[in-house]
Amino acid sequence: MIEILDPTVEVSARPITYVDRPRSLEGKRIGLIENTKFNSDRLLARIGDILKAEYGAAGWTMFRKHNSSVPAHDEIIGELSRACDVMVAGVGD
Amino acid sequence: MPAALTSKRYQVEGPADAIEFCFAQGWSDGLPVVPPTEDKVRALLEAARLAPTQEIGFVAHRAVSITAEKVAINAVLAGCRPEYMPIVVAAVEGIADPRWSYHGPGTSTAGAGVLMIVNGPIARELDVNAGDNLFGPGWRANLTLGRAVRLVMRNVCGSRPGTLDRGTLGHPGKLSYVIAENEADSPWTPLHVERGFRAEQSTVTVMAAEAPRQFYNQLSNTAEGVLTTLADDMRISGNVMGQPHYCVVLAGEHMRTIAGDGWDKKRIRQFLWEHTQNSHAHLKRTQRMSGALQPGDDARLRPLLVSPDDILVVAAGGRAGAFSCYIPGWSSVRSSQAVTKEVKR
Q1: Alpha-carbon distance A24 to A26, whole Å?
Q2: CA distance B6 to chain A (A)
Q3: What is the ipTM of this complex?
Q4: B252 found inside a domain
């Protein structure tokens, strides 16, 4: 018999508290996180327009990340928390 | 009394069963591994004088702490000798550095490997190949050092092909992608000295990278001739809309031809930067740049890289053969920067 060691890390559970979701988008300020990939700005603008026209959102603001493979930087997070009620973010090519 | 190793332990019948067990657990890159027994893991930790709990890197994007114990276990799996451990540690520090920006190259469909360039005395001491068959096969150090880093990415950071590593094509360098600079024969300033270290220091530079692309020039006996061919090959490669880096590896014959004309690395970089620019018209015609052709697009040039300094020039490869190569970096400007770390012993 031989004994070998596990090369992986054991995941430690950590509770995450989510902010309550709004019941309605009526009058809400929408933040859109744009990841710099081709046409992502156009897709998000379309989504923002739909949320405004069909769900009554007050309007939308788009924020551009430094690049697609990094999280939104601090200035974006700060501005989002001041100027937006909900946000739309995603990853895609 | 050495510090205890805290990783989970498994009992298996013997080495052959251990290899199969590691495959079954999903710990392998597809090749057989060396069973990571405590004595082997401890030998690597001792060679780098590291406590098992020491944090080698923290990958913020993945919220993962990489400890010396886990690096050592994965380096054993990869087949590293104990004295390789300081290089593996330095490379792991490099990929955990925020400038390297782990999440992108560890995950992306564009399929980056971790090109590791070893400089300084340790490369010669540990026989890290800088010559014939530069990219393999044949040298234990070259094949196991990079394998160890990739296994850390897989087993510690979660970059498993098909789940968090979504490379569309990948490339063979994702198994191991390690070279040394041929400082003994090179007429030029070594890469690590250009990047701020002293010649007697040992370093490893990590660059998120596509596969190497060989180019031929068996005709010219001038620096400008060889580099004109290289630039013509490079011009349309990788992400021509904005590469973060290139690594240019100049092998023996080309190295001697270029140096014989008195060109240093700075001049090589400048020449390549100037001669790899594409016209907007070409980029639009070939569907790389969006938008309709505009008057003047034929004369409007877009550099392949932001700066000549984004080209890493390395002297390495066999003495014979009029071939060299260039290696496109991964993705686009600001996505991932090459990082050089000292190998601490």
Answers
A1: 5
A2: 9
A3: 0.94
A4: yes
B93: Cβ contacts below 8 Å, ≥ 6 apart: B56, B57, B341
- Residue-wise DSSP of A29-66: EEEEEE-SSTTHHHHHHHHHHHHHHHH---EEEEEE-S
Beta strand A86-88 pairing with B113-119: unpaired
Nearest to B62 by CA among B208, B164, B166: B164
Q: Any chain A CB within 8 A of the CB of B237?
A: no
Q: How many residues can be counted in chain A?
A: 93
Is A74 in CB contact (< 8 Å) with chain B?
A: no
Name the nearest CA neighbour of B113 among B295, B331, B259.
B331
Task: Give the model's confidence band at B278: pLDDT under 50 very low, under 70 low, under 90 confident, else very high.
Answer: very high
Query: Which residue range forms the structural domain that includes residue B297?
Result: 211-328
Confidence bin at B13 (pLDDT 50/70/90): very high
> B337 in contact with A at a CB cutoff of 8 Å?
no
At A15 the pLDDT is: 85
Could you tell me if residue B261 is inside a domain? yes
Min Cα separation A62/chain B (Å): 21
pLDDT in tens, B195-236: 999 999 999 999 999 999 999 999 999 999 999 999 999 999
Looking at the 3D structure of chain B, how many domains does it have? Answer: 1
Q: Is the pLDDT of residue A92 over 70?
A: no
Please tell me which of the candidates A2, A68, A71 has its beta carbon nearest to residue B35: A2
Burial of B101 (0-12, 13-18, 19+ CB in 10 A): buried
Environment class of B13 (CB within 10 Å of its CB; exposed 0-12, middle 13-18, buried 19+): exposed
The radius of gyration of chain A's CA atoms, rounded to the nearest angstrom, is 19
**pLDDT band for position A71 (cuts 50, 70, 90):** confident
> DSSP code of B160?
-
A42: left (phi over 0), alpha (psi -120 to 50) or beta: alpha
Parse chain A into domains and list their residue ranges. Answer: 26-66
